[in-house]
Amino acid sequence: MPIGFFSRRRARRRPASPARWAALVLVLLAAGCAHPRQAAAPAGQPPEVSAEARALRFPLDAYTLSRLDIQTVEYAEDLLTRACMRGAGLDWELLPPPARVDTDPLHRRRYGVIEPEVAARYGYHLPPLAADQRAREQVWRRRETLPPAQRRAAYGDDGQGGCRQTARTRLAAGVPALDQQWLNGFIGDTFAASQRVPAVVAAFDAWSRCMKARGFGYRTPLDAAADPAWSRYPQAGPGELAAATADVGCKRATGLVATWSAADEAVQLRAIAAHRDAFDRFRRAREAELDAARKVIGHR
After folding, report:
1. Which of 99, 105, 83 is nearest to 136 (CA)?
2. Sign of dihedral through CA atoms 50, 115, 44, 106?
3. Using one digit for the tens of pLDDT, what is the confidence trace for 166-187?
4. Which of 6, 38, 49, 270 gives 31 a disulfide partner, CB atoms 3.0 to 4.6 angstroms apart?
5. What does the alpha-carbon distance between residue 102 and residue 228 come to, in Å, rounded to a whole number?
6. What per-residue confidence (pLDDT) applies to 17?
């Protein structure tokens, strides 16, 4: 599975709707099964997202929720939760409204680290959260220490009910029901298939030779990022920084990201064309969930 992260707090907060679940699978695809822990935040802000990373967009994006879409749905859920809580004489702290710009695009680490500054400062570890992400994290953390009465009203006695469940039920009304694993399968299968495209295999070989010339023996960028040596420490050491810097340099020297992203796009388009009815259902589910959230926010 590809590298990156799955440590963003909102991704573990609640059972996902069909479109949201698929978006989380894309996070996993951008993340990988093993990943270094997040580095302690240094002085200053993390690097701005590069134009190359921000430009990575794919056909399947039209059928899943982006990070900003998920923030929209979560904000609508919070508004409904707060209204319910106030009916019980209690308050509910809202998450920040949806951001205008995604400070951590979903595909930023789809092919591993591709930004020179990120590689040089953090290696394969995660950069610190941007300011908007930190604000969201702080709200989630405060929710972990709610007073008992407020917690019961919000989550019910079993943690699965209360005002949160009331809000989710309202937002889900009218959203087509789908097997959550259905779209997940397309997402995982197409990513795996992209790695078998002959042009990508050739690019991997060229990248691997480039890395070997720089003293690193990895077959693919996914192998480099998933090296268990990196996860042993909370921050990147000199060896990791050197490997990640070489990795990015070799990606650029071989044109790997352009080759792989073109193959990724072609594989996804073929899957969509071959399963048109299924993807029409995925699109309707996504649009219905977003429409419901936007109506709630618009009537706040």
Report:
1. 99
2. positive
3. 999 999 998 988 887 999 999 9
4. 6
5. 29
6. 55
